[in-house]
Design a protein that fits this description.
The protein is α/β, with parallel strands linked by helices. 53% of the residues lie in helices and 15% in strands. The longest helix is centred in the last third of the chain and has 32 residues.
């Protein structure tokens, strides 16, 4: 199972990185991860005398070795720290790609003096450009990893984020709050009455409830202490206030989406959320933090297929059909689900659909068989 096998920890040896290191240790303990430390020196560090450059490099190596010793004392797997010269974000992302890491644990970065915002510009840029999930440690004080918040807008990125949130909650034995937010209509034309405004906002909240119910059907919360919260308000402010009011120590959300959440982490509202957060947060794009897409798809198919089998055994055929259909949405070539659909429709007396799915399975098998034969023939003549 591909989980958090490798974690990259880019450190600023001139800053306060203690909680960043503590968080990396907590994660590595849970997943038996290998930690790779990196530090990026500016281009200016290449200038100066040979002696000065040697002294600087020795100082950096000494600092990184101390950090590595901290990991080793905790029996965390590490490798030799990586030192790079040049642009900070470019080098972090290149190192992450080259080392094939599953997660980057970053500090919140340096801030401009007198700036009330909690997030530095480098952390923001790293979030924006990384295709690898980022865990940003914003607090300088030790905090737990036990109370998660995952806002969703029903898009694929928020689906990825919720999958990650559920898996993390199970592994850390944490509480999870799933949040849906709808922005109410606040101003209408003077010709509209107050009751029209109330009616529209009630309609929006009812639609949010329906969307959330349908969205959550595809997720397995077994073993997770979770709540579902629906709120009306400004998306960014609602998320920040939810974190503060409920003492959440980790926010997990997708970096692209639709409607309000798209603006939260990709537009101007990004800064309002991430800069004001009093807790650490994870941003994901298309990549699930714990699993490759292939692994996650297989896991989801197996879960729905097994559920479908149990339902079919109890003669709950319509519910079984829904589970087998979900399998095909994930992978439309999953032949066991196709055959089971044929069997269930046959049980229901729907001969047309039973024949349709039976033929579909046979056609797929024929195609796969032909492709296998073709591959063997091509391999034979290449050898």
């Amino acid at each position: 199972m591909k989980q958090l096998e490798k974690i990259l920890v880019p450190v600023d040896i001139n800053g306060d990185y203690s909680e960043q290191i503590n968080t990396a240790i907590k994660i590595a303990r849970v997943y038996n991860s290998e930690i790779i430390i990196t530090h990026v020196l500016s281009e200016e560090a290449r200038s100066g005398s040979i002696g000065m450059k040697r002294m600087l490099l020795e100082s950096v190596n000494e600092a990184l070795d101390k950090i590595n010793d901290t990991f080793k004392k905790e029996r965390i797997i590490t490798k030799k720290p990586i030192i790079k010269h040049g642009k900070l974000i470019d080098n972090i992302l290149k190192t992450a790609t080259k080392q094939d890491v599953n997660l980057i644990v970053a500090g919140s970065g340096c801030k401009v003096e007198h700036d009330r915002h909690k997030l530095g510009s480098n952390a923001e840029r790293l979030m924006r450009y990384s295709h690898i999930p980022i865990w940003v440690v914003t607090t300088k004080e030790e905090s737990g990893i036990s109370n998660f918040l995952c806002p969703v807008d029903f898009s694929e990125p928020s689906r990825t984020a919720l999958n990650s949130a559920i898996s993390l909650a199970k592994d850390f034995n944490a509480k999870l709050r799933v949040l849906g937010v709808v922005e109410p209509v606040l101003n209408l034309s003077p010709r509209y009455h107050l009751e029209d405004l109330d009616e529209e906002n009630n309609r929006r909240m009812e639609q949010l409830e329906k969307d959330m119910t349908n969205f959550l059907k595809d997720f397995d919360f077994t073993g997770v202490d979770h709540t579902v919260d629906l709120q009306a308000g400004n998306v960014a402010l609602t998320i920040v206030n939810m974190v503060k009011n409920n003492n959440h120590d980790l926010l997990i959300m997708g970096t692209t989406g639709r409607s309000g959440l798209k603006r939260v982490l990709m537009g101007s509202v990004t800064n309002k959320v991430t800069r004001e957060l009093p807790c650490s947060f994870i941003t994901t794009k298309s990549k699930d933090i714990l699993h490759s897409k292939f692994y996650n798809d297989v896991k989801e198919i197996e879960r729905h297929f097994k559920k479908g089998l149990k339902l079919a055994d109890k003669d709950k055929n319509n519910e079984a059909i829904r589970e087998f259909t979900i399998c095909l949405r994930i992978n439309n070539m999953y032949i066991p689900a196709i055959y089971k659909l044929s069997e269930v429709y046959n049980e229901l007396g729907d001969e047309a659909k039973a024949i349709y799915y039976n033929n579909m399975a046979k056609e797929l098998l024929t195609r796969l068989w032909d492709e296998e034969i073709e591959h063997k023939i091509r391999s034979h003549y290449k050898s």
